[in-house]
Give the backbone structure.
Amino acid sequence: MEYPNGDLYTLEANLMNKSLRELTDGADKDPITKLRLLCFSRGATGILGIGRAFRAMDDDGSKALNEQEFISGIRDTGLDVTDDEIREMFNTFDEDGSGSINMTEFLLKLRPPMPECRVGIIDQAFDKMDRDDDGVITVADLKSVYSVKEHPKYQSGEMSEDEILTDFLHNFEGGRGNLDGKITREEFINYYATISASIDNDLYFDLMMRRAYAM
């Protein structure tokens, strides 16, 4: 299978531009929609970046955020919302009224909804990539799935196989955060959930995934 992701850069750029226009068009939007658009305007790893920023505030490792931590986190994103809107968001995410938000549930609600058929094809792609079934995708997994021989930077000698495959993994991790070269299923789904938001047709999304991962 050849190195993928040809169409994704165009889709991502279109989504970023469209989201930024919607975010700044002056129309009334609920605060969660604003936060989702902010994530989209930062590209396919925008939701992942928000998740990492919030996890960094989880000092006690509880994987939950209290109201003050949530307010600080939203303020750090630069989102243009009032304190009342932030509290409205917090109360929406805090469904059980416990005074804290589960990080996983927060990201699930922030992620754009996808039909089961799209989630299914994303899971299939992840399973194909995770060759040793350890729940993460690494360079070692990719070596048995991808051929980089057609990659122009490999052909020119500018990048090695490991460098190209590591660069591919970093697409899913964003430009900041712990670039550990390991992609979890959550990171993989969050990335494609954002790409999915720019594709209206389920069949086209399915085709794109099958073509990218030779399924």
Observations:
- The two ends are 10 Å apart (CA to CA).
